[in-house]
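Fig. S4 source data, part A: sequence.
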Amino acid sequence: MNYIKNVLSSVNVFSILAVFLGTWSSMWAQWENPVVDTITNTQVRKETRLQSLCIDDSGMVHLVWKHQRTVGWRIFYCTNSPSGIWGAPQEVTDSTQVNFDPAITWWSQSGVPFVVYEHNSEICSAYLSGGLWQMYPVTINAQFDRSPAVAIDGWGLPHAAWITVDTATAEYKIAYATGYLVGPNISWSVQTLAGSELGPYGSGASPFMAVTADGVAHIVYRGGDYGNYHIHHAWNEAQGGIDWQYEILYSGNANDYSASMVIEENGNYHLAVSGNDGWGFPGRVYYFHKPYGQVWQQYELASLGGSAVEPALAVDCYGAPHIVWMETSGNFYTGNVYYSGKDSTSAWQVSLVIGGDHFSPSFQVDQLGYGHVACHTGGNTSVYDIYHVKSSSVLTNVDEFENPIIGSGSAYLLRNYPNPVRTHTEVFYVLKYPGHVTLKVYNSIGEEVTTLVDETKLSGMHSVVWRPQDLSAGIYFFHLISNRSEKNRKCILLP
């Protein structure tokens, strides 16, 4: 029995309908009584990053962080079981080497976590196979490389971005690499983005990347020079492409320093940006949205009156944006982590996630709509540990949202599990109202493969199992129609 059914079987029917049909009225009580897990209890210095957390297709949470040893930093990893029980942390890298600044993502095509990290000014990659971490260098050179970010595209190829020094100009630049699978090994094709301008203090450019399903890489980073920093956005034309385009995104801040980005499968872009108006002035987080085929919409202040920095952005299965950020007082982190989300009028609301001594949040929303935050402690108390915080309820009240940003219509097609598919997969969908439903499968060239559902259904959550037979490996699409709503989801069929 898969993870989603395990979760649903543990609550009653009324709670299921409350989660998915919006009968819960406490819109901003999601973080009032969160589930807080202490992942480590060694009280040795540890630190999380913006990409320290990912969630796999079954809902399990995966964390990485850097852990200080007497001879330098090490990288550790931990995950929980479907029942939520956390295992013992394990070291990702060679215990005799200094490694730090890890970023993790879920390699769904292989069903394992995938990590990039810095090692002696080189960028390396690792993935978990058979209980052991397999490590492959991304760079092998004598130049400066740091602050890696990672993403996996719809074809299963890994992508990485980081800060480097251009050997020809001695300037800080953004570097990018596409990983290609050669048997069990990974070979990386590396390039430097000549048009990226990071300035003389470019080592703090903080790159973050998102990749479209077909492999187009998008990198956002702090560009420009001191006193004139803004978020720059670079993207190439195709998977592994070398022709890059650039744009500068201006928020309501005088200077912007960090950003995180999400690109939905339907082509909608989401961006969270933080900055301030100068030394000692309050920080602010702004949200940008670019609907498919349109231009960037006017930015929105997401942090309201709070002084906010380092936003971690996530988008749920309905297309609703959610942001977690750190509070500051002047130029100091307070140790409080906050959440920003939209209400039914599309106005941003703010609530406390966890406070006192929590820093550097990483953030994701799971399949069921619960928020997950990873962070570290110790900045105020010198008691260093890693924490996982799960929201006490779903972040989006479906019944309250009927606008294009959140997701129009009355039917919602959730991600199928497992994905990628070998023998079978279960497709989940939610109906706000009863009505006729058709759910079909199409191949990558638009040909109909089969019809999974063609009947009248009651409101609530439903699922159907697809067992592909005699079909070629490749990309397939689920297409749901109900109550004038149409939704699509992609899945990958393995050989």
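Fig. S4 source data, part B ends here. The mean pLDDT is 88.
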